[in-house]
Amino acid sequence: MGFAHNNVLHANHFRKDWQSRVRTWFDQPGRKLRRRNARKEKAAKLGVRPLTLLRPAVRAQTIRYNRKIREGRGFTLAELKEAGIGKKEARGIGIVVDHRRRNLSEEGKALNVERLKAYKARLIVFPRNSKKPKKGDSTGEELTAPTTRSTLPIPSSFVREEPRKITEEEREFQAYRTLRNERAAARHEGARKVREAKKAEEEANKKK
């Protein structure tokens, strides 16, 4: 092998014993089974409690994904207040609280308040001592009502419309032309204001 000019000579190391450093994954099926059994044991320990905590429905980030609704970190203090649930009480009944989150729209806030109210209506709180139930504990027939461990599903992000006929007004509407006109009007807004101001000034000078 020849080398041109004043370059560094290669020191090639080909005996690296790579076979002793190969990462194997033969325990994957066993780990899968262990995780499954651990989930079953945890579910059995929880008794009749929901398997997951209740989280808010929020819009995904950026313009590209904000049409989707997903689970957020936790409910805001304003949402809890409107639903009539204290922040300490919420943590005790499986509701996640996020004190940093802020409500940016009334629609999103109303959606989560409804979610909290629906959860509270379905909630059964078993008293620690059945002879001395505390405030907020379920009593009477509620304790014998059938229970479910699944949490409230995330609502759909859009409402389907029933099929209908296209109206004559919609048929005649020129969407592309309307958009072009609006863009042109916005683009020339500044120049138009200057022109109108100049014209008004000239008319005022003529009157003098």
From TrEMBL:
GO MF annotation terms: RNA binding; structural constituent of ribosome
Region of interest (Disordered), residue spans: 129-208
Keyword Ribonucleoprotein recorded: yes
Biased composition (Basic and acidic residues): 159-208
GO cellular component: cytosolic large ribosomal subunit
Cited InterPro entries: Ribosomal_eL13, Ribosomal_eL13_CS
Pfam family, one: Ribosomal_L13e
HAMAP family: Ribosomal_eL13
Name of this protein: 60S ribosomal protein L13
Organism: Trametes cubensis
